[in-house]
């Protein structure tokens, strides 16, 4: 099977990290230089075999996702060009996915048919936390969101993570509540 990426990797090379709130370039980190033996790139069709689903299981319950189900969902997301931007950090020596995050771009009628970004599913493998990889993932997704023309980008997080996300300029909006209704567990 040929390796296919979720989106064109060139869009990541155009990101200017000096514009980000966390100034990842001061740490020498960027899409092209995420750390020794690491590569930041779009999710690819062969990442199932590189532990992508195992990584996601560190974030939440994933259920029984076979490679066939993974590829079906991957292709469905890829078919919605310009909507799903899932990035991963791969350890090139171990051939293993160590971190991931998603940007979902929603098309709106408001704000002159604007785009809105949502960041979700930020996860860094337990074995490599504290290396600013999570910061690099979030900064990359935020800068990508801005580059794509989103008028705003939001995310949801648990209270203990508020401080982490506030470093990127995220803030609560006055008189706004986030409500959710779950249909299954």
TrEMBL record:
The protein's name: Glucosamine 6-phosphate N-acetyltransferase
Catalysed reaction, written as an equation: D-glucosamine 6-phosphate + acetyl-CoA = N-acetyl-D-glucosamine 6-phosphate + CoA + H(+)
A GO term, aspect molecular function: glucosamine 6-phosphate N-acetyltransferase activity
Pathway(s) of this molecule: Nucleotide-sugar biosynthesis; UDP-N-acetyl-alpha-D-glucosamine biosynthesis; N-acetyl-alpha-D-glucosamine 1-phosphate from alpha-D-glucosamine 6-phosphate (route I): step 1/2
Record-level GO BP terms: UDP-N-acetylglucosamine biosynthetic process
Entry's EC annotation: 2.3.1.4
Organism: Nematostella vectensis (Starlet sea anemone)
Family label: Belongs to the acetyltransferase family. GNA1 subfamily.
Highest taxon, organism lineage: Eukaryota
Transmembrane segment boundaries: none
SUPFAM superfamilies associated with the record: Acyl-CoA N-acyltransferases (Nat)
């Amino acid at each position: 099977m040929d390796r296919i990426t979720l989106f064109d990797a060139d869009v990541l090379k155009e990101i200017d990290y000096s514009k980000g709130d966390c100034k990842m370039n001061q740490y020498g980190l960027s899409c092209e230089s995420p750390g020794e033996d690491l590569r930041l790139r779009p999710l690819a069709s062969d990442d199932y075999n590189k532990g992508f689903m195992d990584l996601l299981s560190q974030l939440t319950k994933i259920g029984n996702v076979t490679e066939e189900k993974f590829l079906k969902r991957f292709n469905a997301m890829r078919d919605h060009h310009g909507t799903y931007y899932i990035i991963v950090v791969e350890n090139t020596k171990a051939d293993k996915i160590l971190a991931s995050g998603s940007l979902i771009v929603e098309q709106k009628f408001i704000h002159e048919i604007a785009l809105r970004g949502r960041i979700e599913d930020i996860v860094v493998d337990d074995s490599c936390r504290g290396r600013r990889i999570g910061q690099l993932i979030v900064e990359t997704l935020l800068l990508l969101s801005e580059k794509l023309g989103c008028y705003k980008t939001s995310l949801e997080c648990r209270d203990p993570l508020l401080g982490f996300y506030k470093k990127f300029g995220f803030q609560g909006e006055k008189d706004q509540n986030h409500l959710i209704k779950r249909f299954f567990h």
